């Protein structure tokens, strides 16, 4: 359970780090308002998830093989998303790491990504 929470938070942080510059370039000074709207939407989405978790696990625990398989599939989907997130960060690190040097090339960026 804790590992799933860590993965979810990591993917959310990745989304904010990627989304913020895009919002600034597309919306300019209104970007904080757009980000606040996205945060509100995410909070409401999370509220629906929290409601369902509370009612499934606390109020009326249900033992259903279908639900358990769905939860396992969701955990594997989170692992996949986290793997993509880490790969993206490593690739970004490689590109940025060589961009400030005389070795700035796509091959060197991929080499730095592989080494890290």
Shape: flat
How many helices? The count is: 4
Poorly predicted parts: none
The major β-sheet equals:
none
Order of helices and strands: HHHH
Mean pLDDT: 80
Range of strand content: under 5%
Oligomeric status of the shown chains? single chain
Helical residue percent?
over 70%
Total DSSP E strands: 0
* Cα-based radius of gyration, to the nearest Å: 19 Å
Report on this model:
This protein is an all-alpha fold. The chain folds into 2 domains: 1-62; 64-116. The protein has helices at 2-27, 31-59, 65-99, 106-115. Helix 3 packs across helix 4.
Which tags fit this structure?
116 residues; mainly alpha; 2 domains; 0% strand
Summarize the structure.
This protein has 116 residues and is an all-alpha fold. Helix content is 86%, strand content 0%. Helix 1 packs antiparallel against helix 2 and helix 3 crosses helix 4.
């Amino acid at each position: 359970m804790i590992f799933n929470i860590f993965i979810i938070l990591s993917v959310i942080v990745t989304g904010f780090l990627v989304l913020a510059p895009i919002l600034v370039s597309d919306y300019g000074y209104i970007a904080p308002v757009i980000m606040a709207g996205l945060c509100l939407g995410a909070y409401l989405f999370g509220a629906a998830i929290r409601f369902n978790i509370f009612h499934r696990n606390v109020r009326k625990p249900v033992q259903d093989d279908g639900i358990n398989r769905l939860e396992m599939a969701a955990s594997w989907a989170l692992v996949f998303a986290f793997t993509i997130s880490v790969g993206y960060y490593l690739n970004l690190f490689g590109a940025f790491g060589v961009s400030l040097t005389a070795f700035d090339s796509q091959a060197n960026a991929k080499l730095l990504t592989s080494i890290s």
